[in-house]
Amino acid sequence: MHYLIKNLILIAAILSINLSQGQDILYFTDGTKQQCKITSIDAQKVSYKNLENYEGPTYTKKSNQLLFAFKDTGKFLVLADNTNSAPVFIEFLENLESRPFDIIITKDNAVLVADSLSLDGDKFKYLKSQDEGKQTEYIEKEKIAAIIYRNGKHMLYMPSKKVALSLAQVKDDIDRLISTKATKDISVKEPVVATAKEMNVGLSKAELERFQFKAKEKTHRFGEYIALIGDKQSDREEQNKSIDAACSLFLSDTSTVEVSNVNREDKEKYTVRKYLQRLKLLPYNEVVITWTDVSYVSDLKLGADGNYYGVVSFQQVFEGYDDGNVVYRDVTQKNVEVILKSYQKEIDGEKKSLWDVFLSNVGVEETSK
Question: Which of 112, 121, 212, 228 is the most exposed place for a label (fewest CB within 10 A)?
């Protein structure tokens, strides 16, 4: 019986470790943390989903309640200093590439790159890259603030409030280090677009689910940008930044958005950028746009060209006000096509396949008052 219990505990521990893979983590100012899937983030708030219920409610916390956030790729964002810009938030959410090395952050804010890393007693043993070759080094555990592993996991060796200060100090150093190492150690050519069929590469169910979730995230984000762009109280510069950010969610500049009006039967199509610019200039004192029921109509399926295709549906409520009164209102059921494309990077003579999901054309299914 004792042997059985030990094995059950061991199995539970292994499952716990496996479940921690693929999780984003939020660290709060009160010392707690939340394992989740971050869906959106800006200077004011962070929204996230419960990992056990992706289709359930979206939770939101104010940014000033948070110290920092880690994506499941190991990428981090310090929120306590409140100096991040919109492009930083977008890059944090959308950059899914991992690093080919581990990072050690010391308590005196030094950044060490480890090509291999293992615990040896009360020290970490790591292989350090040198111009003249590889060199084995040791560092005491008590000197470490945090470790960020290449597989996306991380470990903190100080209280989270102190780690937040260290992360803020070393952020630029880590960015430069990654950029320098990529330039120096890896010869990267321009990406060559290729299909899964050409590469004979498919995606697992778990990978598809991750990209499906990302497609819904992008659809939600497009709705948030639309609301901000249409809001007459929004700052003009912020509206223009939101237009650029919204366009970056789409496959190309030629992707279109279909629009309708309850007072006429015909529909019109505009490129995404033109649609958003027109939205900014609508002749109302106030515009309120809300999106609801964002869900998949068609899951991502492999197409004949080797890319994956799906359809996300949502309901848009549009209200235009003059002098505090609603002068125009419609409820539109829309579908947006999503495309998961593959491309290749040639690294040291080897082709590495990468994927990303984009929004494509947005169509109108039905419009009512």
Answer: 121
Nearest to 123 by CA among 146, 139, 147, 144: 139
DSSP structural state of residue 237: H
What pTM, to 2 d.p., does this model score? 0.50
**Burial state string for 37-73 with b = 16 or more CB within 10 A and e = fewer than 16:** bbbbbeeeebbbbeeeeeeeeeeeeebeebbbbbbbb
Q: How far is CA 321 from the centre of its chain?
A: 34
Evaluate whether 135 touches 4 at the Cβ level (below 8 Å): no
Instruction: Name the one residue in this structure whose structure tokens are 């992706």.
Output: 54
- Structure tokens belonging to residue 250: 């789409």
Count other Cβ atoms within 10 Å, centred on residue 369: 8
Distances (CA, A) of 123 to 108, 138, 150, 158: 17, 6, 19, 16
Please write the tens of the pLDDT for every residue from 175-224: 877 766 544 443 333 334 444 444 334 677 778 888 888 888 888 889 88
Q: Which two tokens stand for residue 9?
A: 């505990």
200: left (phi over 0), alpha (psi -120 to 50) or beta: left
Tokens (6 digits) for 207: 């990978």
